[in-house]
UniProtKB/TrEMBL annotation:
GO molecular function list: DNA binding; DNA-binding transcription factor activity
Record Pfam families: FCD, GntR
Domain HTH gntR-type: start-end pairs: 9-79
Keyword terms: DNA-binding, Transcription, Transcription regulation
SUPFAM superfamilies named among the record's database cross-references: GntR ligand-binding domain-like (SSF48008), Winged helix' DNA-binding domain (SSF46785)
Originating species: Phytohabitans suffuscus
Protein name: GntR family transcriptional regulator
Amino acid sequence: MGVDGAVRPPAYQTLAEDLRAEITSGRLQPGERLPTEPQLCARSGVSRSTVREALRLLASQHLIVTTRGVTGGSFVAHPSPADLSDTLSTGLNLLINTSTAGLYDLLEVRESLEVPAAAQAARRRTDEHLAELEAALFDPRTTDVPAMLAAHRAFHSALGAATGNPLLELLSRPLYQVSNERDVAATAPAGFWVQVDADHRELLRAIRAGDADAATKIAREHITFIRASLTP
């Protein structure tokens, strides 16, 4: 506890925050080696176990990677949309499941990102993107809700990738990783998944045709349908 009565964070957290600031500010670039453990000990005045705990924390946040051997060490990680999205989705799950934020709020954010993403995908998609979207379609006659949710996430992840905008992909992906299986299973009306599948197929046709206006309209109507089906 500090002299002002405030509780001080553990030393490893303080060191991790200092290193995180160097990474996120760009002072340490992707692929760059961090100082060695002895150097960090000397620089920060902490023990080697404290340094190792700080490095483990940064690794768990996908900010660094550590390798063994003569040429090993800790290196700044190259940003990965998938890893960063996993971190964001953890925070979103916590927020949705433990606060007043709910499905309606989630859908509102989805609409603000998904509708323009559909238009961008229609303008920028490649054959590979089209193949990924096609592969994410599912049989709406199945009763396997987790499988349909997984396909739904895959479709919208592919949609984000098809925009060609890595930031939009990064921000969109976590929205479909929120664990709402129980809510959907409990509230989805009859015919819900049939309509979801039909919307996805119609959106794919518009994207394949390069019709940004049609893709915008379909994406907006898709969110409107989901909101009407799953929220009061």
